[in-house]
Amino acid sequence: MLAPIDAPLIAALHLSDHLRIAEIGAGGGATTRAIAAAAPGSTIEGFDISPDLIGAAKARVGGVARFTLADVADFRPAERFDRLVSRFGVMFFEAPEHAFANLIQWLLPGGTLAFAVWGPGQDVAFMASVREAVAAVIDLPQPDPDAPGPCRYGDPSRLLALLEAAGFCDCAARTWRGDLQVGGGMAPDAAAEFLLASSSAAAPLADAGAREQARARERLAAVCAANLRDGIVWMPARVEIITATA
To answer: What's the CA angle centered on 144, arms 142 and 149, to 5 degrees?
Structure first.
């Protein structure tokens, strides 16, 4: 589902051979594998806070990268890196000022970072669709824009200011827009189930009861059906590609 974002993210890194590259929030290793293909001969290390995801990444990527279980907000690697990259891994820090002040210490002087973060929730159609479907059947509180969450930096100026305060230079944002296959290629009913299960609205909806769950699922499946192309649900999204140097 998220693979289309790898190309603009990797392009922003200006990769070449024999670099030391750190990936923040490496997850299951999909982006790690794309980075390895774009920078043969480089040393890549992926970091994640989830033991399960670290295990999945090791199984998926094999020997082209190493993976370390760590909370990057506090962890300090033994050696610095030439590049720092993250696809949707920097929006959840409890104390972002502290985390970014630590991460600048990961980069060699002149090193480059590239982060992908979601744009505003209303510009990420699958997120907006879930919220609208659930809010139609139960009361949902307004999200706190300062709290950890996927669209925390939908206004990229907030993230740029944090990076500048941490000491990064040449901080910039570039908008990417494109269509994403919901769930990696799903029919409407399956796409609706996937979106509901992976949303922060899943818990309050489950507490509401079976009738409300069915109503929300029906509404969301109808939205998914309206976005069907060749048997697959596609929805538009906005992503901000953030770059800076140490």
So the answer is: 110
